[in-house]
Write a structure and sequence with these properties.
63% of the residues lie in helices and 12% in strands. The protein is of the alpha+beta class. It folds into two domains: 6-75, Alpha-Beta Plaits; 88-176, Methane Monooxygenase Hydroxylase, Chain G, domain 1. A four-stranded antiparallel β-sheet has the order 2-3-1-4. Helix 3 (77-114) packs antiparallel against helix 4. The protein starts with 5 loop residues before the first strand and ends in an 11-residue tail after the last helix.
Length: 187
């Protein structure tokens, strides 16, 4: 459990229109918040998270709802453990999807290498795939408030993807007869 307790948002919005509820849900999820119950969101009790929930509470009120951003302490270790488990379960889902996409990128690079399909178009496509994967890793790890072995495994997978793309890039340069950018040696 975080030493600063928890930031808690209690929010209720009118049923219609649905767009403010969807916006609230997306913003809370993007920040890594976990839903405890309908309309109750929790984050570790940092200053940034409390300010974030205060902003969301204001958003809810501007859209005709009621909201309270609260600081809470946990007097029950079991409850804190349950909340941490929820955070880890949410990140586990994201890391599982990340792993699936990372393995797909590795498989794509292997397939194109086996086919000798070393083209700049293929390289660009795979560079974009790696960029998306790296950006997603940054988002997941930023909201991984209680990291476990999945973070390290994801880092290792991303590194394998980078190395595989570097090898594919070398193949493209060789196939296209282009020397890769090599810094001049100091000598």
């Amino acid at each position: 459990m975080p030493s600063d307790g928890w930031a808690l948002l209690l929010a209720q919005l009118p049923a219609s229109p649905s767009s403010p509820r969807v916006t609230l849900w997306r913003r809370a999820r993007a920040a890594g918040a976990v839903g405890l119950q309908n309309g109750a969101w929790v984050l570790p009790g940092t200053r940034e998270h409390r300010e974030f929930f205060e902003g969301l509470a204001e958003y809810v009120r501007e859209h005709g709802g009621t909201a309270y951003a609260l600081e809470v302490t946990d007097r029950d270790d079991r409850a804190g453990g349950d909340i941490v488990a929820r955070f880890r379960a949410e990140r586990a889902k994201e890391f599982a999807e990340f792993e699936e996409r990372g393995r797909a990128l590795l498989a794509e690079l292997e397939k194109e290498t086996a086919r000798d399909n070393f083209s700049f178009a293929e390289l660009e496509e795979n560079e974009q795939g790696l960029d998306r994967l790296a950006a997603w890793f940054t988002k997941i790890s930023a909201r991984d408030f209680f990291p476990d072995e999945r973070l390290k495994e994801a880092e290792e997978l991303l590194d394998r993807c980078r190395r595989a793309l570097e090898a594919f890039t070398a193949g493209v340069y060789q196939a296209e007869g282009v020397a890769p950018d090599v810094p001049p040696s100091a000598g």
